[in-house]
């Protein structure tokens, strides 16, 4: 059992190390850009892409996937609660409210997925700190 946990920890640390190395290389590449305008837009792109890159590297962990699903369900509750109530009470008005909310959040100008990812990052960081504090 102990060997399995050590192997899992080494594998996780390798993924984390790969992620950190990629982030450092990306930042170094941006810092050495001689053109200030290009450097500015590369930094903007870095901060826009960061949540998606973080998600790609961290969603492989089942705990992160569970946190993301729970976050997604809680943040999208304004959509599925009216659907659920509309189905229970047979109210087309509530289904219309749920559909309108869902169409709004799926629109191109709304940051729904980014908000879900950021909340997932915060919750995972909190769990990691609590795990270090209790020695797990």
Structure explained in plain terms:
There is one protein chain. This protein has 136 residues and is mostly helical. 87% of the residues lie in helices and 0% in strands. The chain has helices at 2-31, 36-58, 62-75, 77-89, 92-106, 112-134. Helix 2 (36-58) crosses helix 6 and helix 4 (77-89) packs antiparallel against helix 5. It is flat and about 60 Å long.
Task: Summarize the SSE layout with pairings.
Blueprint: H1 2-31, H2 36-58, H3 62-75, H4 77-89, H5 92-106, H6 112-134
Helix pairs in contact: 1-2, 2-6, 3-6, 4-5
- Helix and strand content put the structural class at mainly alpha
Total strand segments: 0
Q: State which percent range the strand residues make up.
A: under 5%
Mean pLDDT: 82
Shape: flat
Biggest beta sheet summary: none
**C-alpha Rg (nearest Å):** 20 Å
Low-confidence stretches: none
Helix content: over 70%
* Straight-line distance between termini: 15 Å
Order of SSEs, N→C? HHHHHH
